[in-house]
Amino acid sequence: MGSEMCIRDSIDTDETFDTVMTIAERETYLSTNPNIKQQIGKPPSIGDSVRLGLRKPDDGFRDVLRNVQHHHKKDNINTW
To answer: Using an 8 Å Cβ cutoff, are 36 and 10 in contact?
Structure first.
């Protein structure tokens, strides 16, 4: 049984709150509460910052890469 997290916004009071419910429950909830609307929030961050190239690996790992690169001259190994 799947569930989702939604950000809700009350039109009357400008109150924002989070709830967790199934999609069927969400549809029922929104139809019975016309003063509530769903807001789409920011998706969760998925990914490794090193693999995405946002951050360099630490110096110890870079030393290992340099050693591998030294012994495998034909391979193109990125050591940053």
So the answer is: yes
22's torsion region: left (phi>0), alpha (psi -120 to 50) or beta?
A: beta
Query: Two tokens at 33?
Result: 């509460």
The distance of Cα 38 from the centroid of its chain, to the nearest Å, equals 19
Could you state, in order of their start, the residue ranges of all structural domains in the chain?
4-40+50-71
How far is it, in rounded angstroms, from Cα 52 to Cα 54? 6
Q: How many CB atoms lie within 10 A of CB 6?
A: 19
> CA-to-CA distance for 37 and 34, rounded, in angstroms?
7
The model's pLDDT over 26-38, given as tens digits with 9 standing for 90+, comes to 889 889 988 888 8
Per residue in 9-23, pLDDT (tens digit) is: 677 887 887 888 888
